[in-house]
Amino acid sequence: MLAALTFRHMWLSAIPILLGFALALPVGWVAHRVRPLRGVLLSAGSLLYTIPSLPLFVILPSILGLGYLSVVNAIAALTIYAFAIMVRSVTDALDAVSDDVLNAATALGFSPTQKALRVTLPLAGPVMLATLRVVAVSTVSLLSVAALIGIRNLGSLFTDGFQRRFIEEIVVGIVLTVLVAFVFDRLIVLAGRLLLPWTAAVRSVTEHAHTGATP
Prior knowledge:
- The chain is mostly helical.
- It is built from 9 helices and no strands.
- The chain has helices at residues 2-33, 35-49, 53-64, 71-95, 99-107, 112-143, 155-163, 167-195, 197-213.
- Helix 1 (2-33) crosses helix 8 (167-195) and helix 8 packs across helix 9.
């Protein structure tokens, strides 16, 4: 039972994390490039994040026309929250890329697409990665709330334990939820090292410089 709930919690969390990032990237790019739309898009993201999670889980089945126990409701709700967190981070990360670097890339003959894929996104990547780690932990935590409307996951250990006054079951649920969040965090860090290997090199040089400067 514990293994099944843990696996279910992991895949129900993974899908919204990936979808939220996939949606936030183009919207954040538009907010970065089209200044008149920036305020509207970022404000919309902020407003989405202020929606309380439990009411959203309850309302979505009516909007989507699905049963309350459909996992699509949980995935949709968590995707909204993941998107809301990521969209501002993506915009800020893209804004932080130096104009001098972009001008240099243009001078070297990079096309707009090459400049976006080979310069802008790689340089903005570390900031996005850091926010994605926050999104992952937040998503794993928020998914537990879905247990209140009957969607089985590790949060079900909280509700079952509370109803039966079985504190050990609640503790197990908490420990496993934290463990899942830790695993997701480590996987994102590993992905960042594989996709953005130069960030580790820069960090290593910086740490070495600080260490060498210490008397």
